[in-house]
Amino acid sequence: MSRVSTSSVTKEQPSPAANPNPRSVFSVVRQKVTTKHGWFGDYDYRWLCLPSLPTARSKQPPFYGINDELPLVLAITSGLQHALAMLAGLIAPPIILASALMLDSDTSSYMISASLIGSGILSLVQMSRIKLWGRYYLGTGLLSVVGTSFATLSTASAIFNMMYANGTCPSTTAADGTVTRGPCPDAYGMILGTSLICAFLEIGLSFLHPRILQRIFPPIVTGTCILMIGSSLVGSSGILDWGGGSNGCQARPTSGIYQLCPTVGSPHALPWGSPQFIGLGFLSFVSIILTELFGSPFLKNASIIVGLAVGCIVAGAAGYIDGSTITSAPAITFLWVYRFKINVYPPAILPMLAVYVSTTMEAIGDITASSEVSRIPVVGEDFDSRIQGGVLSDGIGGFISALFTVTPLSVFAQNNGVISVTRCANRTAGRWCCAFLIIFGCLGKISGFFLAIPNPVLGGVTTFLFASVAVSGLRVLSYIQYTRRDRFILAAALSFGVGDLLVPTIFTYLFDGVSNPNKGLQGLFESITILLSTPFLISGIVALVLNLILPHDMSQQDEDEEVVNVAQDMEIQVLEQER
């Protein structure tokens, strides 16, 4: 009788059973902290920590659902993985925004701390499932976390450019035409104030039935927006920082403080695009790839942080890190240590409304993905209520985040990958994640360290991060059937989006022919210019409008005839080659 080898067969451990007898909080805590099972459970920590190669894992650990009993060590470990997976996405936006406004290191460090603390607090709200009235809830009841929306970065960049161009923010022009921007913290306050009032749009959208939202924002619209968000950030921030900086030194001026990157007074300052900068960024980028290839599941979930760590170690040894930001950062900090003058910038209202429409679309897709990896049904009233509660929490979070001095937040998608790898969808792990984020934010020295990361190291990592956002958009677009109608909508939307990416200034002079417009009309012109100059906004609007007005019965017969014609052309080409 032959033996069948089971070494290559994946065995799954039995799923943990939910406790049918509810216990008091005190007894649960006592059992957790006083027993080995409460601390470690039956989870295979060897599987979690050993690298993929050369070791081979023959069985996977059990899957922990959203309400299953979770060992304490696993909860802490999984929470840390979620926090590390979010970290790069949380620190990059405030660093980029502060750099665009030329803010000092103390303010920039505070913005990083506020982003971490705000994300931790509002993620707790998103993971809750508070019944309001009728069929309405607040929160998803899933392990779904929120962080600074990347959609805000592209929009804020266009708004800041407009503010510097019209004199709202100070700037000076040198004799050779080089424009040097001055610090403009009030611009950040205007973004916060505008975001605060625009958040009511997403709050209102949350009370629409999810099926209506999905009909208005199908994958062809959401995928186009996400694709353009990631693509624009790669070009406007990631690659520029990889080359040395995006603060003006990328133009390689012949005079001024930006002759060298990041400034002439920085340690190891070099011209933009120098091989040393390219090498540092490439080292961080390759570290991410090697971690994915050889790392353990734990390290794979934190591959972005591994890339930052490796790059910083080499950069520090080579003298590229300025430790002054770490020295000047406070040991302990919290929200509202620095405050901004909250105001509303009228030309930014329409773009920020579009941002909240985008975050609504992101929330629907990410909550659906979270439900799938958490083994929660993605159809039915329960799922619809999770969508509604998540979008409502997103909208309220946008309002509260502005009060927290943080730009709008949205549901993070990368944590779904952590759930998939660790097989832990338990909300207890999510609460530990929030605790870690709040702790990281309160420790001011950590924010000071993040601010000291050299631009090339940050650029190598954020280029990968933003490209991952673009790939998420492609994944959403893969759900469409690519009928003639779909291809037409996508082509029209990308015509504007890709055009903006390649020629960012095409709409800058659109209203120059209008002489002496009044203040209100000028504000409208600026608002339209911002919309047209932001790739994901204009492409999303085009896709949305065309999806609503083009008939769905756009001749399937023509589609079939087109397929037949293509097949005939291929047959003719084959016959000609045979001859």
Automatic annotation (TrEMBL):
Keywords: Membrane, Transmembrane, Transmembrane helix, Transport. It is found in: Membrane. GO terms for molecular function: xanthine transmembrane transporter activity. One of its GO terms (cellular component) is fungal-type vacuole. It is a multi-pass membrane protein. The chain crosses the membrane at residues 83-103, 109-125, 137-160, 187-208, 220-240, 277-295, 302-321, 395-412, 432-451, 457-477, 489-510, 530-550. Residues 1-23 are annotated as: Disordered. Belongs to the nucleobase:cation symporter-2 (NCS2) (TC 2.A.40) family. This is Xanthine uracil permease. It comes from Suillus discolor.
